[in-house]
Amino acid sequence: MEETDFRLADGRVLHVYDSMPGDDARLAVVWHHGTPNLGVPPEPLFEAGEWLGIRWIGFDRPGYGRSAADPGRTVASVTADLTTVLDSLGIGTFALMGYSGGGTYALGAAAILGSRVEAVATLAAIAPYDADGLDWYDGMLPSGLASLRAAAAGRENKVRHETSGVEYDPEFTPADFAMFEGPWGWLGSVAGDDSMPNGPDGLIDDDCSYVLPWGCDLATITAPTLLVHGTADRIIPSTHADWLATHLPSATLDLHPGDTHITVLTHAEPALEWIRDQTG
């Protein structure tokens, strides 16, 4: 995995990962990481990615890892950062894959970048905050509810929430802990404090970006889109996937009864295979 620091037009640094530098014969798949994670593409999918002919591209969103913070960033502004990276690498068309909050950024990029996007797959994605007819908070666990309500009250309020010492409890299930004993224990290497060595800006701006206008219209997405979600997800309830499925013209809903925000990752490899099928 080659790691590079890209200097953006405004002087910020964006830390980028590329599994096969210069290999234009492979399908480039951009990985959009969850909150709070580093942007290194998912190691548990490397073996499948190899036989599927995938070139992984990833990046630490601003405020994470070695990427400079960009307070007040939006889905659209992060897509502009990604566009600079893809253009610099000479990548024309590509696919997108996003987990959890990364699903927001994958969908936003698909809406903004249009025909450059060949396919999109999300795992436990968030719907827009202003989604008409969706009770956005309904079904969320208490810690997530408090965290996102703080973001909705404004960035300064979110900063106070994150620096108050409050503990976030994801309420992992026995099945979740079993996942961490297997390949997806990889999440522990990219999550939490290790992803934010310079403070909580990444987490703060992620959560704020979910409740701000995204700066795009999801109804304009033309690429085939797969929405994978577990019905037992209490971090991002599956009602978000239901809403997305009815408002994205090219979406396929892939619901999994009983799966949580973590166990839904067992369907990540089939989702990657689906991407490959869509792109030939």
Structure described in brief:
By secondary structure, this protein is α/β, with parallel strands linked by helices. It contains 10 helices and 8 strands.
Give a quick set of tags describing it.
about 280 residues, alpha/beta, Rossmann fold, eight-stranded mixed sheet, 10 helices, about 20% strand
Strand and helix layout:
Layout: E1 2-7, E2 13-18, E3 27-32, H1 46-52, E4 54-59, H2 75-89, E5 94-99, H3 101-113, E6 117-123, H4 142-152, H5 155-162, H6 174-180, H7 187-190, H8 201-211, E7 225-230, H9 239-247, E8 251-256, H10 268-279
Parallel strand pairs: 3-4, 3-5, 5-6, 6-7, 7-8
Antiparallel strand pairs: 1-2, 2-4
Describe the structure.
This protein is of the alpha/beta class and 280 residues long. The chain has one domain: 3-Layer(aba) Sandwich (Rossmann fold), CATH 3.40.50. Helix content is 35%, strand content 18%. It has an eight-stranded mixed β-sheet, sandwiched between helices. β5, α3 and β6 form a beta-alpha-beta unit. α2 crosses α3. The longest helix is centred in the first third of the chain and has 15 residues. It is globular and about 45 Å long. The chain starts with a strand and ends with a helix. The model has no long low-confidence stretch (mean pLDDT 96).
